[in-house]
Amino acid sequence: MSLEKFISKARTSWMCSDGPDSEIVLTSRIRLARNIQDVKFPLLFSKEEAENVIQQVEHAIVKESNDQMELLAMSDLNELEKRVLVEKHLISPQLAEQSPYGAAILSEDEEVSIMVNEEDHIRIQCIKPGLQIVEAFKEANRIDDLLEKKINYAYHVETGYLTSCPTNIGTGLRASVMMHLPGMVLTQQMNRIIPAIQQLGLVVRGIYGEGSETLGNIFQISNQITLGRSEKDIIEELKSVVTQLIDQEKESRNALAKTSNIQLEDRVFRSYGILSNSRIMETKEAAKCLSDVRLGIDMGYIKNISKSILNELMILTQPGFLQLYAGEQMNPNDRDIRRASLIRERLKLETE
After folding, report:
1. Which residues are documented as binding site for ATP?
2. Where does the record place the Phosphagen kinase C-terminal domain (predicted)?
3. Binding site: which residues?
């Protein structure tokens, strides 16, 4: 494995595989926050302490386990390489931007990533395709057990795992599901649904998590409370809400097909035409059109394009990937031109 492997391919195993309810649920993600006993939090520690944390985690999971994992130090990556890893959801924006002594340990299939020295010493992440939140937790928990055999975690018998941010104290668990909800957006239900979800202790964010923008009708639903809740309760509650959202999205799509079928079909093929022929395309427009075309595939309007191609294009058309493939830094206008060209070429290959 190498850095080039992780940054050169837009597709990952969880992105090009179909999971349960994959026409609506893109991915399920589990993240576990952990810290090492008697070591300062990353906000306060020294370079030497940071390096010691990296060595402990690397020894426990790369050298001692049978998992095929590779460590990438943030100090060895340039800004573009880090941006690409963020766009692939392998590391967080915070690790890329604010952690000079950070590192990422990635599995060969990219389903597991361990961020070291981000906000906490250790953040274990597992991503699965479709609605597989329980399966993602089992894998993350397996990695957690491997680490705990070699590392003493900061833990309190009353409050649970101790974390840098108080909102993570307890289980240290963040469970999230990435959902494509164009039907509910088109039927204007999301503005009503989001406050209801938040009242249940969940939060709705954009495609790259906290502080990110919603693009292409893709929403990230995750738990907000970790203290006083068990992992089982958190996961079951999230899964219950997501299952209800799946049902509502299906109902919305069926309603659109019954009441506005020709208008919806027209919208889908207009977006397909824009993607197939545009010479300049901004990120937001690309995301909106890709969302429409994916909806068209799911509803049977478009039959000659696979959903995985659209998943790939969602990543390929991000600024970091565009510049990576161009082999140079690009201004926004040049990126818009390159984005349009790349989409045209990719769709042409798919339909030939």
Report:
1. 27-31, 89, 123, 174-178, 205-210
2. 24-252
3. 27-31, 89, 123, 174-178, 205-210
Q: Which residues contact 130 (CB under 8 A, 6 or more apart)?
A: 18, 19, 20, 21, 22, 25, 26, 27, 28
Q: What amino acid occupies position 39? A: V
Phi, psi of 334 (to 5 degrees): -65, -35
Q: Residue 267: name the closest of 303, 291, 284 by CA.
A: 291
DSSP 75: G
User: What values do phi and psi take at 184, rounded to 5?
Assistant: -70, -30
pLDDT tens string 288-336: 999 999 999 999 999 888 877 777 888 888 898 889 888 888 999 999 9
d(CA 65, CA 322): 36
**What token pair was written down for 190?**
């999301």
Over its C-alpha atoms, the chain yields an Rg (Å, rounded) of: 21
**pLDDT tens, 169-199?**
899 999 999 999 999 999 999 888 999 998 8
**Cβ atoms < 10 Å from Cβ of 197:** 18
